[in-house]
Design brief:
single chain; eight-stranded mixed beta sheet; 11 strands; binds iron/sulfur cluster
């Protein structure tokens, strides 16, 4: 995998449910076509030229050195560090990325900093064998469907949904905190599906975040977006209350 150098790694996030964040990879082989907000931003800034470029991730080779320098600087300000907003820390079929992510999580935990992690990839078994429970890390997957044809079209190189859920369930059964990001949840003109089935498949998690699809031209062709997301948000809230799951409905999803 190609390598790059960066001058800094940790930064304060502006996302409503996150604190500090880091991205130790440039690009993401999952190549989501919702489209991917990170890809759009990098392309707009000229950092990434093409979709193919974006799908050929480059690892930040000095990530651990940067972390060692930055942790003392920010340690008192950090509640937790999120991995990642503009790449995927457990990219499917990219063991080098996952390996570096494990080292970063360990390094943060050794400094008493907890992590929240989100992936459309696959959590490796060695993570489940770690003594991470005491660190209070939270491990999440993105899940907006159970339909593999949909996944292949919109998240072409991500982990199959069943594998994603299985790996998360494994972490949950070993006492790790787990969560699911149901965002960007697709409108019915993209796929007709039953949200309840998806919720049931992840009823073991501690937290669910639900959010609408924002940047898709196709979704804007759906006339009843407001009514659709309002009613689904109610379904999520009802399900979470019934199953004692924490929830967060992203801003702008309910109107
Ligand atoms: S997994 Fe995340 S970062 Fe990677 S392409 Fe998909 S949306 Fe973008």
């Amino acid at each position: 995998m190609e390598k790059i150098f960066r001058k800094s790694l940790l930064y304060r996030s502006e996302v409503e449910y996150a604190d500090f964040c880091l991205n130790h990879v440039e690009g993401c082989s999952h190549g989501c076509k919702y489209p991917c907000y990170a890809y759009m931003m990098k392309k707009r800034c000229g950092i990434v030229k093409t979709y193919e470029d974006w799908c050929s991730p480059k690892i930040v080779s000095n990530a651990l050195e940067l972390l060692d320098k930055e942790i003392p600087k920010y340690k008192d300000k950090i509640k937790y560090v999120h991995l990642c907003f503009s790449t995927d820390p457990f990219m499917y079929n990219q063991p080098e990325v996952g390996g570096l992510s494990l080292k970063i999580i360990d390094r943060l935990n050794q400094n008493s900093i907890r992590c929240t992690v989100l992936t459309k990839g696959f959590y490796p078994n060695e993570l489940a064998n770690r003594n991470g429970q005491s660190t209070n890390n939270e491990y999440g997957i993105t899940l907006v469907s159970l339909n593999e044809d949909f996944r292949k079209e919109f998240e072409p190189n991500s982990a199959p949904f069943k594998d994603r859920i299985k790996a998360l369930k494994n972490l949950s059964s070993r006492g790790f905190k787990t969560w699911v990001s149901m965002e960007p949840y697709p409108t019915p003109n993209l796929i007709k599906q039953d949200l309840r089935e998806i919720l049931e498949a992840v009823a073991f998690v501690n937290k669910i975040i639900f959010g609408r699809l924002n940047y898709s031209v196709k979704s804007s062709e759906f006339k009843y977006t407001k009514e659709f997301y309002n009613s689904l948000a109610k379904v999520v809230i009802k399900f979470c209350k019934k199953n004692n799951i924490a929830y967060h409905i992203k801003e702008g999803t309910q109107q």
